[in-house]
Amino acid sequence: MDSRLRTITIAICVGVVLFVLVIVFYLNRDVFGGKGTRKDSGALISASEDTGEKAVVQKTDDGYWIGDDLYAFREDEGFFDKQATKYDEYVKKHKTLSMITTSVEKDLRIKIVDYDGKVLEDKELSVTIEGKGDYKDTDKDGIIYIPYIKAGEYKVTLNEVEGYTVPEEPLIVNIKAQVEYVPIDDIKALIKTEAEIDPSEDDKDYLDMDADTDKTEITKLLTTAENATLGIDVSKYQGEIDWKKVADAGVKFAIIRCGYRGYSTGSLVIDPYFEKNLKGATTNGIDVGVYFFSQAMNEVEAVEEASMVLSQIKRAYVNYPIFIDSEASGGDGRADKLNVENRTKVCKAFCATIESEGYNAGVYASKNWFNNKLTAKELEDYIIWLAEYREAPTYEGVYNMWQYSSKGQVDGIEGNVDLDLSYLEIKR
């Protein structure tokens, strides 16, 4: 393009822009002129403090003032009145509390949550149960538990909480007369991490196998055991595991600890390595089962323990059974002094709850424990996982898996690990 043509093009563009600006200015001459007068609008004329001239303001049918007078808002008598806004409504909504209740058997657990479903902690909370009285959240964890209450229908009222809105009407709840072996929906509210408890008091590494161990204990991997599959069971005590090396060593399955109930506090605690071990094993083609170290005192607590496990494996592939680990805790555990009948009921309640969700359930215990602390015959409908550290088990009852050593050495695991043989036919 030569210079003359370029000059003409630029001139035309500038001309077009100027023409557009003139049109815009003309159409908005009232605004640019600052007069603000439109004789045909029927608008209200008010004084402009800056110029002393008249400026147009007009009140619409729905109560709004419009015009070009910056001081026109003073004509609105309600301009400074506080009115509810969407933000005010949002704050009020998110400061509204509600109650979630659960009953397993002649008990009531009340969880106080905010609008987002988050448990309200560190607050002074209390409820009133009609005909029963007031109950406080003494540990300020947002949960009020009433362990012994007669079955029936009750009205529960959440008392005032500073800074929050509580329900105006009481909540109608039904207290169950008998335990049902089904998962507790809101069990996650009861699950703690080790950061919230004292593991040295609630998770002691105690092993009481003297009566079921002798010098013939096998500590090597039985990779060629006839009609059996080689496996291990692990928890946080094995630390970081190289699961590829474990798989390469010939291990076919792993029973992984999901968690435990505290020896002293009774808290439900997730094993800090559970998720990592679960992922590591399955990623490397190792079949997976789960166990939970129980300190349940009754069937209600057994259902809680099973519910916790089920809540943690919802998105996992678990094809080996889920076990309740029933064993001693050094004599000072909260469940150590249970009698045979109640301990057996605990195991059955756990297993029944697990089976209600379609999983295979089982009981882990030593030979001594099965013979003297449980009614083994009542448990034979479930998978029996026997712990006995000898060249061959001497247990005369039925068993489906055998933990044959606690001193195994497996490539990929630092230190000792439990070794197991499974006689189950597991579908992948």
A few lines on this structure:
This protein has 428 residues and is an alpha/beta fold.
Overview of this structure, please?
The protein has helices spanning 3-27, 29-33, 86-94, 199-202, 243-248, 274-283, 299-312, 340-355, 367-372, and strands spanning 44-47, 54-59, 65-67, 98-102, 108-113, 126-129, 133-136, 143-146, 152-158, 171-175, 191-192, 229-234, 253-261, 268-270, 287-293, 322-325, 361-366, 383-387, 401-408, 417-422. With 428 residues, it is an alpha/beta fold. The protein folds into 3 domains: 42-77, no CATH class; 87-175, Immunoglobulin-like (Sandwich); 187-422, TIM Barrel, CATH 3.20.20.80. Strands 12-13-15-16-17-18-19-20 form an 8-stranded mixed β-barrel. Strands 7-6-9-10 form a 4-stranded antiparallel sheet, with no helix packed on it. Strands 1-2-3 form a 3-stranded antiparallel sheet, with no helix packed on it. Helix 8 links the parallel strand 16 and strand 17. It is flat.
CATH superfamily of the largest domain: Glycosidases
- How far is the first residue's CA from the last residue's CA? 76 Å
Under the CATH scheme, which class of the largest domain? Answer: Alpha Beta
Which percent range fits the helix content? 10-25%
By secondary-structure content and strand pairing, the structural class works out as: alpha/beta
Unreliable stretches (pLDDT < 50, length at least 5) are 34-51
Strand content: 15-25%
The tally of helices reads 9
The domain count comes to: 3
Shape, please? flat
Tell me what the CATH architecture of the largest domain is: Alpha-Beta Barrel
The CATH topology label of the largest domain is TIM Barrel
Q: What is the overall pLDDT average? A: 86
The neighbouring-strand order within the major sheet is 12-13-15-16-17-18-19-20
Tell me the total number of β-strands: 20
- CA-based gyration radius: 36 Å
- Order of helix and strand elements from N to C terminus: HHEEEHEEEEEEEEHEHEEHEHEHEHEEE
User: How would a textbook summarize the main sheet?
Assistant: 8 strands, mixed, barrel
